[in-house]
TrEMBL record:
Alphabetized GO MF terms: glycosyltransferase activity
Protein name per the record: Nicotinate phosphoribosyltransferase
Posttranslational mods: Transiently phosphorylated on a His residue during the reaction cycle. Phosphorylation strongly increases the affinity for substrates and increases the rate of nicotinate D-ribonucleotide production. Dephosphorylation regenerates the low-affinity form of the enzyme, leading to product release.
Chain's role: Catalyzes the first step in the biosynthesis of NAD from nicotinic acid, the ATP-dependent synthesis of beta-nicotinate D-ribonucleotide from nicotinate and 5-phospho-D-ribose 1-phosphate.
Keywords from the named record: Glycosyltransferase, Ligase, Phosphoprotein, Pyridine nucleotide biosynthesis, Transferase
Amino acid sequence: MLAAALRDGTVARRSTFELFARRLPDGRRYGVVAGTGRFLEALPHFRFDDAALTSLAEFLDDDTLEYLRGFQFRGDVDGYAEGELYFPGSPVLSVHGSFAECIVLETLALSIFNHDSAIASAAARMVSAAADRPLIEMGSRRTHEQAAVAAARAAYIAGFTASSNLEAQRRYGIPAEGTAAHAFTLLHTGPDGPDEPAAFRAQVEALGADTTLLVDTYDVTTGVANAVAAAGTGLGAVRIDSGELGVLARQTREQLDRLGATQTKIVVSGDLDEFAIAALRAEPVDSYGVGTSLVTGSGAPTANMIYKLVEVDGIPVQKRSTHKESHGGRKQAVRTSRPTGTITEEIVYPAGQPPDTAEPCRALTVPLVRDGQPVAEADLGVARKLVASGLRSLPWEGLMLSHGDPAIPTTQIPASHR
């Protein structure tokens, strides 16, 4: 496309591309915007070096290669702040510049937002299901090594309290937590068979009594007894990773209390998703470790976002393809609410033409980039607060895990052709 636009002279036409989702993944009632900070971090460094140009020279002409050699995005970007909720048609990102500048960014924008928003949306459902109990992200061994870091960041934005990924802690300051694996218990096996007490004693000696001991390698009841014997009643926590977690959590709580370890917490893990977490809400579980389901979006590994040209030289343009229609024109959005703060509607309108509304409303579209330089800060703490506030603002049915319509409707005010 870039080569053809350079050849026919359309390469510099002022364009606006928008990133949005036509619909939410099946069963979802809201989405969470995540990846904005990573996009803003990547944008100034998105260049084509000699190695990239050598690869592209296999199929691109010299004029196109020369354009890419000097490529640097110098346009503007508006969009939703990281941590905002989004719904079908929400203009999550609006990219303004020459056609060439905007089209080259398509895969960068989509790959970041589709991944991170999918993870954050799944994580928010888990946070809601956990009802204020902490969740630890533990999915690094179930996804690509770079995706693992991004997933930990997205989960933290959505309300997870910590991650087992140390690179996420180093790069983004996300609190790091973890426990021993079954391998450490199995390591302590001799000619006479397993020696779980020795494994627990070694861990306590190295890490202190406040550590978390994994008690389900052999038998949970025996494991709990061995754990308290090794650490005393000040044992920090026990983790259960298999079996009927609700039943085992009740039995473990009763056993810990009988042994005097009344402050020892119970951590559960093992193929948890938002539905399993919700089912454990009434059980004496203190925190959850979530891996595979989280880093795969809990059945929705992509946010289904698309990146479409909506305006050329001030002229609205839109697709008319069946079931793939788009809405033309540069857009902004506001969200209305009741006086109580419960949101009622999202209104997407032509940029610069805000709607009249009697209800309280809040602007969603904010400046992110000006002249190629980020103007918005990527603050994970602010994003976490925005997600928490958004979840509190949803109508009660919007937090349901069952299939249903989006939590609020989206109204599109069409652009007029100028």
